[in-house]
Design brief:
The protein is an alpha+beta fold. The protein contains 3 helices and 6 strands; from the N terminus they run E-E-H-E-E-H-H-E-E. It is about 45% helix and about 15% strand.
Length: about 130
């Protein structure tokens, strides 16, 4: 059986599941960081301004977009692909078959909040104490 790590909730998550979830968080954070610094349009497009006075539902203004470079497009595609692979790995992990109903839901939510602490994984059992 795969190595598991104890949690404060009493659940032992397999180490490979914890690693996949950790990497998924990292990849999603990196993708968000990359997209935040990229121009608003993948393709080069002129800027525009739309106002509610012109009949649009909200005011929007965008500068000219130089588009994304081939390298930027490739990086975003790679990060999206890796996030999809990791999402599938986490969602289809055999561990989930060992739980039923509400226990499976609780475990999935706990896994999303698992933290690393010098190599040992701890799962938050609930909101932090006041």
């Amino acid at each position: 059986m795969a190595e598991s790590a104890p949690s404060t909730s009493g659940m032992d998550f397999p180490a490979d599941l914890l690693q996949a979830q950790r990497e998924l968080h990292e990849v999603r954070a990196r993708l968000q960081e990359v997209c935040a610094r990229l121009p608003w349009s993948v393709e080069p497009l002129p800027g525009f301004r739309q106002t509610q006075a012109e009949g649009y539902w909200r005011d929007v203004e965008r500068p000219d977009s130089p588009g994304w470079t081939d390298e930027e497009q490739q990086l975003v595609a790679q990060l999206r692909q890796r996030a999809q692979e990791l999402s599938i790995t986490v969602a289809t992990h055999p561990f989930w078959a060992t739980l039923e109903g509400p226990d499976r839901v609780k475990a999935r939510m706990a896994l999303k909040h698992a933290h690393g602490d010098h190599g040992s994984e701890r799962v938050a059992a609930g909101p932090p104490a006041p």
